[in-house]
Design goal:
- With 409 residues, the chain is α/β, with parallel strands linked by helices.
- The chain folds into four domains: 162 residues, MoaB/Mog-like domain (Molybdenum Cofactor Biosythetic Enzyme, Chain A), CATH 3.40.980; 43 residues, no CATH class; 89 residues, Molybdopterin biosynthesis moeA protein, domain 3, CATH 2.170.190.11; 72 residues, MoeA, C-terminal, domain IV (Beta-clip, Beta Barrel).
- The chain has a six-stranded mixed β-sheet, with no helix packed on it. Strands 16-13-17-21-20-18 form a six-stranded mixed β-sheet, with helices on both faces. A five-stranded mixed β-barrel has the order 22-24-23-25-26.
- The longest helix has 19 residues.
- The protein is elongated, with a radius of gyration of 30 Å.
């Protein structure tokens, strides 16, 4: 077993774990309208053109483009208005030379029309005549049949994370039911003799168990189903039983261990006793989060996170969140990183990757990161922050004005 603090970089730690992660095989069919945040388990091909009729993208007049060529303010084109296309109905109008029809955004184009003149580029002469003061080209202000999506075109691929726009796009094609991967289940175990439930008044030496709830929130945010398995005392048999339950009920097991070295060692011993291959990483060059454990037991990933709430949240975001997306079948997880300029000098120690809570602010189009100084593992520093600024492990800090990578919280 790797010894504690035989540390490796966060990237190396992830690369050791990642080859053992596979998407869950379970799928289900659900209503498309209820699929926000789910991961598609099938390829979607358009069964029809979208739009299936040519329609206007502007309020204006449907015209034959050639009737407007050369039109200007001083020499407008005069067109006869032969009718109005009513919304939600077939056009029912056919244009002859020098004719136009009033159309609204989304309305069907009349027969023989091939462009739409914006209403701002026309002047009404009388009830049946308009002046066109700007020419239009064929296809201008028109959405052609199949221009958005052509019949038989691949729309979305297996592994797509469904956002609001995907939901709307699928429903516009009449796809009302889809097959998605079932949500990954994450078992959350909190260990420590000092822990009491949040509703209980702690006695001297005790603290409320917050990890079960903050980590459950992070799991839910990543699309997983959190299973809070309660508080486990610092007892080998009790922790083993809880870990075995986690293996039975969940796809991922997360143990937030107590702060003592003996508790961390017990967590490592329990994980290694459950099955192969066992612990792959025990110690990461990271602040906060150096004693983090990454393991796999009989195909299921296990994580041993620091018991401190702030450290637990940061290491969960760095390791468990990408694991959830990977096991959810998501090919392209949502972007969780951005860059910003530091507003103040930020000290660190070389040889470890440091994550500093920062408050983000935009000024004149530039994003700035204001460090929230204090103990790195304090939970309320994260409450005051919008993200975590990364100080690379080969740097002894960053200077004000430097560009920094920020993980969004």
């Amino acid at each position: 077993m790797p010894q504690l603090f035989t540390v490796i970089t966060p990237k190396e730690a992830w690369l050791r774990l990642e080859p053992h992660l596979s998407p869950v095989a379970r799928v289900e069919t659900i209503a498309t309208a209820d699929a926000l945040g789910r991961v598609l388990a099938e390829d979607i091909v358009a069964s029809s053109d979208l739009p299936f009729f040519a329609r206007s993208t502007m309020d204006g007049y449907a015209v034959r483009a050639e009737d407007t060529y050369g039109a200007s303010e001083s020499l407008p084109a005069y067109l006869k208005v032969t009718g109005e296309v009513m919304m939600g109905r077939p056009a029912g109008i056919s244009l002859s030379p020098a004719e136009a029809a009033l159309v609204h955004t989304g309305g069907m184009l009349p027969q023989n029309a091939d462009a739409v003149v914006m209403i701002e580029n026309t002047r009404e002469v009388d009830a049946s005549t308009i002046e066109v003061v700007r020419p239009v080209a064929r296809g201008e202000n028109v959405l052609q049949i199949g221009e958005e999506v052509a019949r038989g075109e691949g729309v979305l691929s297996r592994g797509s994370l469904l956002r609001p726009q995907e939901i709307g796009g699928l429903l516009s094609l009449g796809v009302t039911k889809i097959t998605v991967f079932q949500r990954v289940k994450v078992a959350l175990i909190s260990t420590g003799d000092e822990l009491v439930p949040p509703e209980e008044e702690p006695k001297p030496g005790q603290i409320r168990n917050t990890n079960a709830y903050t980590l459950a929130g992070l799991a839910s945010k990543a699309g997983a189903i959190p299973l809070r398995l309660g508080i486990v005392k610092d007892n080998h048999e009790a922790l083993t039983a809880a870990a075995q339950r986690g293996m039975r009920e969940a796809d991922i097991v997360v143990i937030s261990a107590g702060s003592s070295v003996s508790t961390r060692d017990m967590t490592a011993d329990v994980i290694n006793s459950l099955g192969p291959p066992g612990i792959m990483v025990h110690g990461v060059s990271l602040k906060p989060g150096k004693p983090t454990i990454l393991a796999v037991v009989n195909g299921k990933p296990f994580f041993g996170l620091p018991g401190n709430p702030g450290s637990a949240m940061i290491t969960f975001e760095l390791f468990v969140t990408p694991c959830i997306y990977k096991m959810s079948g998501c090919k392209q997880p949502p972007r969780r990183f951005l860059t910003a300029k530091l507003t103040r000098n930020t000290p660190s120690a070389p040889g470890r990757e440091d994550y500093v809570p920062v408050k983000l602010e935009e000024k004149e189009g530039q994003l700035y990161a204001e460090p929230v100084f204090g103990k790195s593992n304090v939970l309320f520093n994260l409450i005051r922050a919008d993200g975590l600024a990364q100080v690379p492990l080969d740097r002894a800090g960053l200077a004000a004005g430097e560009t920094v990578l920020v993980i969004l919280l």
